[in-house]
Amino acid sequence: MRWLIALCVLMPTSLWAVAPPSDPFLTQYAQTRRFTNGRPVQPHVTPDEKTILFLRSPADSPRQTLFAFDVATRTTREVLTPEALQKSGEETISPAEKARRERMRVASRGFSSFQVSKDGEQVLLTLSGKGYVVRWRTGAYVELANSAGALDAKFSPDGKQVAYVRQHDVYRVDLASGRESRVTFGGTAQKAHGEAEFVAQEEMGRMSGYWWSPDGRSIAFAEVDTSQVEKWAILDVMHPERAADTMAYPRPGKNNATVRLGIAPTLGGKVTWVNWDNAALPYLAEVVWSSGAPLTLLVQNRTQTEERLLAVDAKSGATRTLLTEKGAAWINLHDGFPHWFEDGHGFLWCTEQNGGVEVVEHTADGAAVRTWVKPDIGAFSLSQYVDKTHTLYYTASSDPTQAHVWKVTDAGAPVRIQTGEVDPSLQVLAAASDTGRLLVAYTQNDQHLPLARVLLDDGTAVGELPSLVATPPFLPKAEFFTLGTERVHAMLLRPRGSKPGIRLPTIVYVYGGPTATVVHHAARDVLLDQWLADQGFLVVRVDGRGTPSRTPAWERAVHLDFATVPLDDQVTAVQALAKQVPEMDLERIGIFGWSFGGYVAALAALKRPDVFKAAVAGAPVVDWLDYDTHYTERYLGLPSEHPEAYAKSSLLTYAQDLTLPIGALLLIHGTADDNVYFFHTLKLSNALFLAGKPHELLPLAGQTHMVPDPLVTQREYERILKFFRAKL
Fold first, then answer.
1. Which one of the listed residues 169, 626, 673, 709 is annotated catalytic?
2. Structure confidence by residue, pLDDT tens digits, 70-90
3. Beta-carbon neighbour count of residue 99 at 10 Å?
C-alpha cells in the first residue's frame, strides 16, 4: 500500500476535489423510486361503497401506510401505520419474504399488501412476518399470536378464519378463539406445502400455493417437491463471512419441481390428493375454488403447447376435463381465468384459438356458449367480473401504445368507460365495488403522471385518491411513429429546446421480447428518457415482432429464435425512423436495455456493431440454457429437441467468434440477482476477455434484478450517461 500512498500525495489537488454535484433530476428520480413513491396503490372499495381503502407512502420514502378515502366527502385519513402494530418501527424481512417480493416486483416497505374481509370491516396485514387483523374503522387490532414467519396470509371466504404458510406448512387461525391449528403436516424446505414454486411465481403469475374452499372447511394446497431440482447459491460478495442463500432453480432440459395438489380439512383429517396426468401435464398454472363451482385447475404440458382445464371432485380427488387447448408454438396464460359465475352455471374463459384474444362463456361442463369479447383486440387484461349485474370489466386496446377501460354486460356490445382522459392514454381499472357502481381507475397520458380516479361506472367523476408523488421538474415530449410494412410502433424524444437540422447521437432504449412493450402514451415511463435526451441525445423506443399486445402471429415470430427478429426489427426501425428524422446521426447509434432488453443490447454490440456503436446491457440473459424452464422452453422448446435454437440465441456464440468485431459494450448486473443470476454477465465477460474483445463491467454489489437502492440507481445512470458520452 506504500506506493499507493505516495502516488496519492503526488496527485494534483484538483483530482482530489469533491465529486461534481449530482444532477438534481437524477437524484430526485432515484430517491422517489422513479416517481412511484406517494402513489395510492391497491385500492379496495368497501361493500357499502362509502369508503376506498388503499396504501400510500410519502414522496421521499417507500414506507407504506393504510388510508381510507371517504367517497361522500372526498376526504382521506390515515388509518394505520406500521408503528401502531410494531412499536420499534423497524421492519425485518425474512429471506423467503424477500424472494417472494422480488417475484412480485415489490420494493415497498411498511405494509406491502393487505386483504379486506368479506363484510369490509376487517383488514389483514403482515409486518415483519407477523399477521395482524385490524378493525380499520377504530384501529383496534389483534396480533395472530403464533404467526411469526408467516407468508401469504389470507382470510377465509367468510372472514372468520385466517390461513398462512409457516415453516413450509399451512396453518389456520380461528379468529373468534384465537386458536391456531395445523392444516398440513410434514412440510420441509425440499417438500413444501402451500408454497408456490419459483417458476409459478416468476413466470405463471401464480403467487400462492394454497386456496380456501368456499365454505372455509377445506384448503387445497400444492405440495412442491424440489429435491431433484438444481440448487443455486447467491453469496453476498461484500460479506464473505455469511453463508450463501440457496434456492431451487430449474434450467431448460433439467428437472422441474414435482407438484401435486392435496385437499385438507381445516379441522384435521385425511388429505385427498387430486388425480391428473402429472407426467404429461406437470405445470399447475392456476387454481380456482369459488362459490357454487368445483375446485378447478389449469394444467400445462412442459412445452406449453397443450393445456387442460380440469374440474375436481373434492371428495375423491377425481378430475374431469372441461376444455383442452393446443398450440403449435405455445399457449399464453391469462390472469383471472377461468372466472366462474357465482351460481356455478358456467365460467368465462380467455383464449387465443381464433386468431386473437377472446373471452368466451362456457357451461359448467365446458361447452362454449357465446363470445363476450371478440378476438379483434390486441392488448387485453381482465379487471373484474360483477355477478350482480353480469358485467365484465376489462382493459383493452387494438393499439398497444394505449389502453382503455371497457365493460360488457351479458355478452352485449362493449361500452368504453370514459375516465376524463385526453386520448391517447393508458387506463387500467384497479378496483370495482361488488355492484359495479363505483370504480377506481388508474389513468395517465403524455401530459401527466398516473392518477387514481374514482368514478361511477358511466365514467362520471366522483373524486381522486390523493397522490403525494413528487412533481418532476419537466414533462417529456414524445413523438410517435408507425414504421414500415410491419407497422412497428416507435417513439422519439428530443432534447428540450433542440434546434431542427442539428444531427445528434441516438440512444435506443430496448426491451424487444415477449411479455412487455415499451412504446406507450405514458409520461412517467419516459421521464428518464427525456433526461437522457436533454444531455444531447435523441432517445428512441421500438416495439418489434415478438412483443405482446398485437396478434398471436406477431408475438410468435420469435419461436425457436431470440437472436434474429428482435434485433432485426430494432435495426430496421432505426433506419426507417432516420428517413423521417434527419437529426438522427446513423453513425452514432447506441442501445440500452435491462433483462431481455439487456440481452438484445448485448446482441446488438456483438452482431451489429456496424449499426450500434455502443451498448449498455443490464442484467442480460447470456446463455438461455441457464435461464428458467417455464419461460425459456415456452419460446425455444426443449434443448434436446431444438439444440440449434439455444446455440443461435446464446450470446456466447457470438462473443467467442473471433471473426466478429464488437461495438463498445458496458455490462451491468446486480450480484444478488436471483432471476437472471450474476454469473450470466460473468460468463459473457469471460468469453469476451478470452476472445480479446474489450468491454466494460459494472457489478452492482448486493443488488437484485430490480435494483431498489436509490443511490445505486443514481450512480448507475450517471455511469451510463458517461459511457454514452464517451462512445457516441
1. 673
2. 999 999 999 999 999 887 656
3. 18
Q: Where are the chain's structural domains?
A: 183-333, 478-727
- On the question of pLDDT at 16 being above 50, the answer is no
Instruction: Let me know if 705 is a catalytic residue.
Output: yes
Q: Is 57 a catalytic residue?
A: no
**In contact, 205 and 194? CB cutoff 8 Å:** no
365 contacts 344 by C-beta, under 8 angstroms:
no
Distances (CA, A) of 441 to 151, 429, 571, 639: 29, 4, 37, 43
Catalytic-residue membership of 673:
yes
CATH 2.140.10.30 fits 183-333, yes or no: yes
Alpha carbon of 209 to those of 328, 373, 416, 432: distances in Å? 30, 30, 36, 26
Percent of the chain at pLDDT exceeding 70: 96
- Kindly report the CA angle at 51 between 49 and 52, in degrees rounded to 5? 105
Residues 723 and 494: their CA atoms lie apart, in Å, by 19
Spatial distance between the Cα atoms of 26 and 711, rounded to a whole number of angstroms: 10
Give tens-digit pLDDT for 551-588: 999 999 999 999 999 999 999 999 999 999 999 999 99
290: its cell numbers: 369459488
- Return the closest-CA partner of residue 207 out of 135, 103, 308: 103
Given the residues 57, 108, 208, 595, the one annotated as active site: 595
Segment 14-19 long-range contacts (CB within 8 Å, at least 24 positions apart):
none
- Cα gap 431→383, rounded to integer Å: 7
CATH of 478-727, picked from 3.30.1490.190, 3.30.2390.10, 3.40.190.10, 3.40.50.1820, is 3.40.50.1820
Put simply, whether the predicted model's pTM sits higher than 0.90 gets the answer yes
Residue whose C-alpha cell is 433530476? 25
264 CB-near residues (< 8 Å, 6+ apart): 170, 183, 184, 218, 219, 220, 221, 271, 272
Q: Average per-residue pLDDT in the chain?
A: 93
Where would I find the beta strands (DSSP E) of 327-466?
A: 339-340, 346-351, 358-363, 368-373, 379-386, 391-397, 404-409, 415-416, 425-432, 438-445, 451-456, 461-465
Which residues lie below 8 Å from residue 19, measured CB to CB, with a gap of 6+?
Answer: none
Model confidence pLDDT, tens digit, residues 336-347: 999 999 999 999
Angle ∠(358,364,370) on CA atoms, nearest 5: 35
Angle 98-100-104 from CA coordinates, rounded to 5°: 115
Reported as a single tens digit per residue, the pLDDT across 147-184 is 888 999 999 999 999 999 999 999 999 999 999 999 99
Phi/psi of residue 523, each to 5°? Answer: -60, -45
